[in-house]
Every structure is written in structure tokens, then in C-alpha cells.
Amino acid sequence: MIRDILVNLSMGDKHPATDYAASLAGLTEAHLAGIAFRFDPAMQTSAFGLFPPTLVEMAIQENEQAVERATGDFQRAAQLAGVTFETVTVPATLVGAGDAFGQTARRFDLVIVGQPRPDVDAAEELLIEAALFDSGRPVLVVPYIHKGSAKLDRMALCWDGSRPAARAIADALPLMRRAKSIDLVLIKNETHRGEIEGADIAQHLARHELPITLAEVPQGDVDIGNTILNYVADHAIDLMVMGGYGHSRLREQVFGGTTRTVLASMTAPTLLSH
Q: Which of 45, 167, 207, 222 could cross-link to 273 by cystine, CB 3.0-4.6 Å?
């Protein structure tokens, strides 16, 4: 059961993740915590050394105002959803925010982060990475184009037989119990011509009395990530579930190709586990 949800509060324009998290907490009767990171400009330097004190003071005031807006939006959304909630503000550097977020997320059932807006939300990608690889918890990413409250009627599970995919399906079980239909999606290509058997995992989920339909999808001329995205869009999926692939942040390539493609162009909320 999901009883504790953590959501990152974006410091830019209000992100749909705030309202989504509040409505999902309402659906699951969970407590909701919002965390806001106040980035400290005093820790930054310019090409000519430290920023002048006046500029630092202005930046501090702007950051504090952004935190107030984000926490205010969060509190109104939580009150409207009728859920118990709390907020915390953490002063941090950009890298320090990722570390703090990953550690904080370990005591929650589910972590929600907004999809980074192009060329705007640099912090969100670091927070998704930290939550996915450092928290041991599932991460639900909400597209920046998302509208409306959380819906769980129609879900899609991406299955390739891997450990991350199995972990994601297990983590999503509490949400799957609310679905009216669940598609178990297998991408068929020349590399995998049936070696990865979907019938076994479908049978396992059917034993949980879930409305599972096995869907074998030909890859065609696009990569796996875009094949998944096309399926989600064509079938009006409310929530997608998939394994999160990648390496440690010490490597040049953090996210695997499929994960990166989905995070960049997602149109439906997506639950990732690693």
C-alpha cells in the first residue's frame, strides 16, 4: 500500500507534478510531503571571482520568493485534495540537492518529480537521477504538458524480462489494483523473437486478479523508446510503468537510451524503478 508520498516542488513556473501528486495522494489516501530546494547563490562564483554582495542578496531574495510560491501552490493543492501534508525547505547547492533528495526519498513509498522543461529545469533531471539510483524507491515522473488530476484507469507495463522491469512491476502493484485495464507491452524486434516470454509474467499478474492483456508490439523502423511512446499515445495510457536503465553518475552516460528517450518526450506519467 502507498501511505507516504514525496514530491519535489519546482522553483520555476508551477509544474503539473504538484497537482498530480496531491490528487494521487487523495486517491491512495496517502500522506503527502513537499520538498523545496533553495539554491544558495553565495556558493557560486563568476568568471571574475565571487559575485558582488548586492547581486548575491538579490538572488537570495528571488530564491526565497520562488520557494514561497512553490510551497504556497503545494499547500493549496493538498488542501483542495483533502490530504494530510507537510513541507520542508532545504538550502543546498545543485549537486547537494540531488544527494539530499535521494536520501530523503528512502523513507517514502513513492517519489514524484516533474519532467524537466527544455532548457529550464536543470535541477529536475539531477533529482530524477538521484531518486532513481540512490533512494531504492519507485519514481513517478509527471510530464510538463500534463493536464488534470491523476488517473489510473488504463495502464501499460513495459516488459523485457529484465530485473529493473520486474522491480517496476512489483513497485506498481498498489496502483495497478485501481486500474480498469492493464496492457503488458512486449516490443518485438529481430533481436528478441520470443526469447523473452511475456505469458509467464502475465499469468503471475493475473493471479493478483489484475485485468491484464498481453500486447506484442512490433518495433518497426524506430527505436524502442519511441515505439513505447507511440504505443502510450495511441492507446490513451494514463500511467506507464517501466524499468529505469542507466549507470552511476560517475559514468558519462547516466540514463540508458530507452530511459532517456522516454524522459525527453513523455506524454503520460511514468513510474520508473531501478
A: 167
For residue 159, which of 115, 129, 108, 203 has the smallest C-alpha distance?
203
- Rounded to whole angstroms, how far apart are CA atoms 30 and 45? 42
Q: What element of type H or E holds 123?
A: helix 122-134
Residue 162, Cβ neighbours under 10 Å: how many? 14
pLDDT value at 250 more than 50 = no
- Taking a C-beta distance cutoff of 8 angstroms, is the pair 181, 157 a contact? no
Could you give the residue range(s) of every CATH 3.40.50.620 domain in the chain? Answer: 4-142, 154-273
For residues 112 and 22, the answer to whether their CB atoms sit within 8 Å is: no
CATH domain 154-273 topology: Rossmann fold (3.40.50)
Q: Is the pTM of this model over 0.85?
A: yes
Residue 255: all three cell numbers together: 540514463
Residue type (1 letter), 203: Q
pLDDT number for residue 53: 62
Residues in the chain: 274
**Residue 259: CB partners within 8 Å, gap ≥ 6?**
225, 242, 244, 245, 246, 272
What is d(CA 62, CA 24) in angstroms, rounded to the nearest whole number? 30
> C-alpha cell of 262?
522516454
pLDDT, one tens digit per residue, over 22-53 is 999 999 999 999 999 987 765 555 445 555 66
Return the C-alpha cell found at 121: 529545469
Q: Please name which of 190, 172, 192 lies closest in space to residue 182, comparing C-alpha atoms.
A: 172
Class of domain 4-142: alpha beta
